[in-house]
Amino acid sequence: MNMPKKTTVTLEDLLRVKRAERPPPEFWAQFERELRTKQLAAIVEPRPWWAPLIRFGTRAARYQLPVGAAAVLALSFVTVRQYRGDDYEAVVASPSIAAIGEPAPAASVGPDREAAPLRAPVAAERATVAAATVSDVAVTGRSSHTIPLPTVTPAVSEPTPSARYIAANLAAAQADNPNLVNAVFGSMMRSADNREPVRDPLAQISAPGESRRSRLLASALGVAAPGDLAAPSADRVSRRLTEERLYDSISRIGVQGDRVAIKF
Amino acid sequence: MDVVKTLGKTLVASPDRQQEADSDLAVVKRVQAGDVAAFDQLVVKYRERVYGVVYHLTSNREDAADLTQDAMIKAFQSINRFQGQSSFFTWLYRIAVNSTLTHLRKQRLRTFFSFDKIDEDDHVSAEVIAALTDATGADRETFARELQEKLNEAMLKLSIKHRTVITLFEIDGLSHQEIAEIMDCSVGTVRSRLHYAKQLLQSELQAYIRR
User: Fold this and answer.
1) How far is A48 from chain B (nearest CA, A)?
2) CA separation for the pair B11, B7 (Å, rounded)
């Protein structure tokens, strides 16, 4: 038989040679026997209880990417939300907020809900929130926020026309009949005279930064000026020093004799 | 001519294939209805093709025989879940290819050759071997054995996925679409893998290519 001469050999031709690799016919008889044996064994052998679980896992594996992405998003959302909540609470509730430095320009705040609990409890007097003198609120933490800390200073109230009218009448009545006036208004006037002047509760609270500064200065100046001298000098210095200068000037590590003191 | 052949192979479903798929589906329905012996028809029909694919992927005849039998048994066990969304042939191929890929990944570091003989009655391979031996003057049988080794070595240098694509397309003659269905990837991916695999094989088998 004459075969046409092939002169060119391509990759496809070489792969056709590979395709011609075939098992001999007797191979299939043995194959058939082995397959039959395996088939019977597979029918007789009970399937393991976890076989459906594998099938379920294979199906669930298709959704691993969207499920994973959703989980990461949810985790990020919760983390960010938690982080913001902590930060806000820390800023509001932190005792380490210090109000020091130069006073900020006064801002008049209306009688809103933030200022309401801070108002002086003088019912009759009209309290006016004059200024919120908070400057450079330093917040320990990752971010620094400026939280206005309003201090309420009751303004000197001008007598109203009715008050002026009542006062004039009272003075006239006292001049005409002092006994009657004393009998009627005596106890009230005495109690009003004996009453302690109303003090702003905020004025009684020292700023958190103030106490910290005093503590730092007391510890720093304790050796040099023991006893009563420490506090006045600390006050004087604290008025002049800013927070940054305090940190620059006071070292946390001190050496005294054979001791090394580390302040936290 | 090659272009026409290639285009013909990439057609999604020829009428012959469709007819074949319909007849397979009828047999599958009989098996699902309880006629277990009908499954033997499918085994006899597809065992050589499935074996061929597995053999060219593993280059080991014993492994190929075992994997082909395992694929047939898996298909038999799961035949009730076959709903006819793809052809039975594609479904069976997918089982066989997936089993083989799992086997190859497990045995990545252990490779043993065990070849089937080149069919002497295959005219195309005889022509190719003749063309190559005429040029070199080598003994045909010796040269055929050497060529077979080189071909299998070159195939094993491909990654598993590239080897699968080149086997299914060039050796088994499946279309891009069918390969994409079997490998569960896009047609573009199949083309890309095929192109890369051919480039690599050409560089590996440069000594045997005559232009």
Assistant:
1) 13
2) 7
Report residue A247 as tokens. Answer: 């940190």
Is B154 exposed, middle or buried (CB count within 10 Å of its CB: 0-12, 13-18, 19+)?
buried
Listed residue (B65, B67, B72) closest to B31, CA to CA: B72
DSSP bridge pairs for B118: A21
Are the beta carbons of B128 and A21 separated by less than 8 Å?
no
Long-range contacts of B19-27 (CB under 8 A, 24+ apart): B20/B87, B20/B89, B21/B87, B21/B88, B21/B89, B24/B87, B24/B88, B24/B89, B25/B84, B25/B87, B25/B88, B27/B88
Q: What gap in Å lies between CA A94 and CA A76, rounded to an integer?
A: 26
Domain boundaries, chain B: 13-116, 158-211
Better pLDDT: B53 or A183: B53
Percentages of chain B per state (helix, strand, coil), in multiples of 5: 75, 0, 20
The alpha carbon dihedral of A35, A37, A43, A47 has a sign of negative
Q: Which chain A residues are closer than 8 Å to B123 by Cβ?
A: 3
Better-predicted residue by pLDDT, A133 or A205: A205
**Interatomic CA distance for residues B73 and A40, integer angstroms:** 10
Residue B183 and residue B194: Cα distance in Å, rounded?
A: 13
Binary contact (B210, A7; C-beta < 8 A): yes
The shortest CB-CB distance from A17 to any of B51, B128, B210 is to B128
Cα A179 from Cα B42, distance rounded (Å) = 129
Cα separation values, A128 from A112, A133, A149, A196, A199, Å: 11, 14, 15, 21, 14
pLDDT at residue number A130: 41
Q: What pLDDT does B48 receive?
A: 92
Closest CA to B28 of B90, B78, B88, B94: B88
Split at pLDDT 50, 70, 90, the class of A85 is low
Q: Which CATH class is domain B13-116?
A: mainly alpha
pLDDT, position B44: 93
A to B CB pairs, distance under 8 Å? 118
Whether residue B5 has pLDDT greater than 50:
no
Q: Show me where the domains of chain A are located.
A: 208-254
| A131: phi then psi, degrees, rounded to nearest 5 | -155, 150
Both tokens of residue B209?
């290519």
**3-state SS class at A119:** coil
* CATH (residue range B158-211): 1.10.10.10
Is the whole model's pTM more than 0.95, yes or no? no
Residue-wise pLDDT tens digits, A170-182: 888 888 888 887 8
What DSSP state is assigned to residue A257? T
